[in-house]
Design a protein that fits this description.
The chain has three helices and nine strands, in the order βαβββββββααβ. It is α+β, with helices and mostly antiparallel strands. The longest helix is centred in the first third of the chain and has 16 residues. It starts with 5 loop residues before the first strand and ends in a 15-residue tail after the last strand. The structure holds ligand K1U and zinc ion.
């Protein structure tokens, strides 16, 4: 497996619509594996293909040791709503509260291309909505009020120079187990 580079705010691919996956291939399964490794190394709970510079409609999430690959995900039901804090591996150290559905049902393909439906609540539902937004070029800062978005962008402006070409390279020693322990 390999650590992938993460595209950060300012990289055009983060604002592009993704392309539906027609058929799962070994190459896309390898991409999903590399995305899990990158997400764990960055201490994240989700990662979408555009964040690693790929145009496919594919994302991974892992909360409490429950790794899930979603390919061409579609939310078919939502219920409830709650505000909760979000971060983004493509906008490091910027956080904001976002209103999201507290329960969702989604339809997707798994890493073998098999269709499935998943009901998710709370943090898993929030994370899946965040990842599906990435697949449509949307970022959590788009939901912030004018003032909070301006503050978030000001914080980002002070940090973006640390990411030449809008690329975040994780140090090789960032590779760690799922709970942060060194291997
Ligand atoms: O897609 C991403 O950028 C990953 C992002 C997913 C996410 C986090 C929080 C709420 C919704 C979606 C992250 O993993 S950010 C880092 C993180 O682990 C985290 C940050 C804030 C709250 C909880 C977790
Ligand atoms: Zn994100």
């Amino acid at each position: 497996m390999s650590l992938l580079e993460i595209h950060v705010l300012g990289s055009p691919i983060l604002r592009q619509e993704t392309k539906p996956v027609e058929r799962m291939t070994d190459e896309l399964r390898r991409l999903a594996d590399d995305m899990f490794e990158t997400m764990h190394a960055a201490r994240g709970i989700g990662l979408a293909a555009p964040q690693v510079g790929r145009p496919e409609r594919l994302a991974v999430v892992d909360i409490e040791n429950n790794p899930i690959v979603v390919v061409n995900p579609e939310i078919i039901l939502t219920d409830g709503s709650a505000k909760g804090e979000e971060g983004c591996l493509s906008i490091p150290e910027v956080f904001g509260d976002v209103d999201r559905a507290t329960r969702i049902t989604l339809r997707a393909m798994d890493r073998d291309g098999k269709p499935f439906e998943l009901e998710a609540t709370d943090l898993l539902a929030r994370c899946l909505q965040h990842e599906i937004d990435h697949l449509h070029g949307k970022l959590f800062i788009d939901y912030l009020s004018f003032l909070k978005r301006r503050a978030a962008l000001a914080k980002w402006a002070s940090m973006s120079k640390d990411f030449p070409q809008n690329i975040r390279k994780l140090p090789p020693d960032a590779i760690a187990g799922r709970h942060g322990e060194e291997l």
